[in-house]
């Protein structure tokens, strides 16, 4: 689960992180009052979307030379005007893709005098199953580009969970970032606070880009991107309330309400599978035979007829889907339940694209019989290879 920058900064402020004062705005009409609450003389107006690269992004149908999603203003009136110009428009960055994201919230904060820009992130290292620090002197840039061009400027290390964060971890970050004198002490304290926030709030990633050194030599969190483990949100009702559903894919949002594991992709073949491993194998074999999967969808081992019906609706709601492959290996999941759900969904939403169904396992014959007697134009498959070949052929011709 992701949250907006202003929400992340409010959370980090509770843990003692130095952040600028700011006011979020959801209506352009409130921007002037919001800017008036800040001291100035410089205001920063930031579009709030769940994507990076806002400063370098462009609004759709932008005027020539128009600024991106992060703008500077030298008066309350100018800050309000910049907010008005951004609100409700679609911002395209390298992370949003060409479709972009609509700006429904603006964050206006005090400007900062910047002496240096640094990069810092805490994340879960999947190889070591530990919390890792990543830092670089190249703040304000895309870290992927830094990794490609100058990997020696990135320092990363993990924290042993047996000891947790220790002051030497903070000093290691400070020395990697070239900090000196009192800045080292500030860094040790800040890293400890960030590590505590990361663990206590079940974060998956905490990225600060840039972490700045001000003209007075102090550290400040100038931007913050935070994502959380969605499976842990039952422990954090306060964090769950920060969820902005307008930033999420409607199909993924609908799937989450039915406890379906769904991720939208860019292909043309919709997949309904039980089991994450089998779902990955299904997507791989679709690619092997020359097509692209339109989604990852794991209905789980104990899916009901209703869940299967909703899963099918979600797949068919994607306009990019030109064909559907249902691939079920029934262990805990019964093939007849899948068949009943598919039939119910087709009768409710209709079937406008080719549908290939491969069933194997518990109650497989009963499931196949339900499909055969449904009167629907369904293509049966004997195994996964056969199913992949048939759906690709049906879609590609």
Automatic annotation (TrEMBL):
Pathway(s) annotated for this protein in UniProt: One-carbon metabolism; formaldehyde assimilation via serine pathway; Carbohydrate metabolism; tricarboxylic acid cycle; succinate from succinyl-CoA (ligase route): step 1/1
Reactions the enzyme catalyzes: succinate + ATP + CoA = succinyl-CoA + ADP + phosphate; (S)-malate + ATP + CoA = (S)-malyl-CoA + ADP + phosphate; GTP + succinate + CoA = succinyl-CoA + GDP + phosphate
Binding site for ATP: 46, 53-55, 109, 112, 117
Pfam family membership, one: ATP-grasp_2
Domain ATP-citrate synthase/succinyl-CoA ligase C-terminal: 272-391
EC number from the UniProt entry: 6.2.1.5
GO-annotated molecular function: ATP binding; magnesium ion binding; malate-CoA ligase activity; succinate-CoA ligase (ADP-forming) activity; succinate-CoA ligase (GDP-forming) activity
Binding site for Mg(2+): 209, 223
Top EC class of this enzyme: ligase
GO cellular component: a single term: cytosol
Entry annotated with the keyword Heme: no
Keyword check for Ligase: yes
Cofactor binding annotation: Binds 1 Mg(2+) ion per subunit.
Obligatory cofactor(s): Mg(2+)
Residue positions binding substrate: 274, 331-333
Keyword field: ATP-binding, Ligase, Magnesium, Metal-binding, Nucleotide-binding, Tricarboxylic acid cycle
GO biological process: succinyl-CoA metabolic process; tricarboxylic acid cycle
Residue ranges constituting the ATP-grasp fold succinyl-CoA synthetase-type domain according to the UniProt record: 2-212
Family: Belongs to the succinate/malate CoA ligase beta subunit family.
Subunit structure: Heterotetramer of two alpha and two beta subunits.
PANTHER family in UniProt: SUCCINATE--COA LIGASE [GDP-FORMING] SUBUNIT BETA, MITOCHONDRIAL, SUCCINYL-COA SYNTHETASE BETA CHAIN
Function: Succinyl-CoA synthetase functions in the citric acid cycle (TCA), coupling the hydrolysis of succinyl-CoA to the synthesis of either ATP or GTP and thus represents the only step of substrate-level phosphorylation in the TCA. The beta subunit provides nucleotide specificity of the enzyme and binds the substrate succinate, while the binding sites for coenzyme A and phosphate are found in the alpha subunit.
Protein name: Succinate--CoA ligase [ADP-forming] subunit beta
Organism of derivation: Jannaschia rubra
């Amino acid at each position: 689960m992701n949250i907006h920058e202003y929400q992340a900064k409010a959370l980090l402020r509770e843990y003692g992180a130095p952040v600028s004062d700011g006011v979020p705005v959801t209506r352009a009409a409130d921007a002037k009052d919001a800017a008036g609450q800040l001291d100035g003389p410089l205001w920063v107006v930031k579009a709030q979307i769940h994507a990076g690269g806002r400063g370098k992004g462009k609004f759709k149908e932008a005027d020539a030379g128009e600024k991106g999603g992060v703008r500077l203003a030298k008066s309350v009136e100018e800050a309000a005007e910049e907010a008005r110009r951004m609100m409700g428009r679609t911002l395209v960055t390298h992370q949003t893709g060409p479709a972009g994201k609509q700006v429904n919230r603006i964050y206006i904060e005090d400007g900062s005098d910047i002496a240096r820009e640094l990069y810092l992130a805490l994340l879960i290292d999947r190889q070591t199953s530990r919390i890792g620090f990543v830092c670089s002197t190249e703040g304000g840039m895309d870290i992927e580009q830094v990794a490609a061009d100058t990997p020696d400027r990135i320092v990363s290390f993990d924290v042993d969970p047996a000891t947790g964060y220790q002051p030497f971890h903070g000093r290691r970050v400070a020395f990697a970032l070239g900090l000196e004198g009192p800045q080292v002490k500030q860094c040790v304290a800040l890293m400890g606070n960030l590590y505590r926030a990361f663990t206590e709030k079940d974060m998956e990633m905490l990225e600060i880009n840039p972490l700045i050194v001000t003209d007075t030599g102090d550290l400040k969190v100038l931007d913050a991107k935070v994502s959380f483990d969605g499976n842990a949100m039952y422990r954090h009702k306060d964090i769950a309330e920060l969820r902005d559903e307008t930033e999420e894919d409607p199909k993924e949002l609908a799937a989450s309400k039915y406890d379906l594991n769904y991720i939208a992709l860019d292909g043309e073949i919709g997949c309904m599978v039980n089991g994450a491993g089998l779902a990955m194998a299904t997507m791989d074999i679709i690619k092997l035979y020359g097509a692209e999967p339109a989604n990852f969808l794991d209905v789980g081992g104990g899916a009901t007829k209703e869940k299967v019906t909703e899963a099918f609706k979600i797949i068919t709601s994607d306009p990019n889907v030109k064909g559907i492959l249902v691939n079920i290996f029934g262990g805990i999941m019964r093939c007849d339940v899948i068949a009943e759900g598919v039939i119910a969904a087709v009768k409710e939403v209709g079937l406008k694209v080719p549908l290939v169904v491969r069933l194997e396992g518990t109650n497989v014959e009963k499931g196949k019989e339900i499909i055969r007697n449904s009167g629907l134009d369904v293509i049966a498959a004997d195994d996964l290879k056969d199913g992949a070949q048939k759906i690709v052929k049906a879609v590609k011709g």
